[in-house]
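hey
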């Protein structure tokens, strides 16, 4: 049994105590708390239940649930007889942080630059990059894409792969090496 599954552990207290580390916004926190409460009391969870309990719009709830899934805090497991909302990833954030999965500022930077909320697939791709590349290099690739008004994950992915194949680092770019010409 994992530490957060023990009967004497107050999961909601732990969540509130670790808000800074988790980086949850208000909507994310509300959804997490409702899911944890419903799981604890073995009540069925659906998107409709979440809309009703939180008072959030359907779009807002869907977006928030997608974000929680992309951060690996929430996993929705469907079977023939039921749907399970699993928050185990939330309690294993130290492991996720060490693996480079979590970086709210990176997600926010992309959303600000793109002028919209990221899709679940886009957040997953950024999480994958965060495991493979230096954060600063990812930001330089975003800047490069923005300069050419090519604000797409696919374009940024091609930039990162090209730089990686040429062994270009963030330091190279800072020192004035032009990755697109050298």
């Amino acid at each position: 049994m994992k530490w957060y599954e023990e009967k004497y552990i107050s999961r909601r207290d732990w969540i509130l105590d670790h808000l800074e580390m988790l980086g949850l916004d208000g909507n994310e926190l509300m959804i997490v708390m409702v899911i944890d409460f419903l799981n604890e009391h073995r009540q069925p969870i659906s998107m409709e239940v979440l809309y009703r309990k939180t008072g959030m719009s359907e779009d807002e709830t869907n977006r928030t649930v997608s974000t929680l899934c992309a951060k690996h805090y929430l996993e929705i497991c469907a079977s023939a007889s039921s749907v399970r909302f699993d928050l185990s990833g939330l309690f294993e954030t130290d492991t996720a942080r060490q693996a480079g999965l979590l970086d709210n500022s990176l997600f926010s930077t992309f959303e600000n630059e793109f002028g919209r909320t990221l899709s679940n697939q886009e957040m997953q791709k950024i999480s994958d990059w965060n495991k493979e590349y230096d954060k600063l290099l990812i930001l330089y690739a975003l800047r490069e894409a923005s300069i050419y008004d090519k604000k797409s994950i696919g374009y940024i992915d091609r930039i990162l792969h090209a730089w990686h194949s040429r062994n270009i680092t963030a330091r190279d770019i800072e020192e004035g090496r032009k990755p697109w010409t050298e």
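The domain at 103-174 is CATH 1.10.10.630 (Arc Repressor Mutant, subunit A). The chain is about 60% helix and 5% strand.
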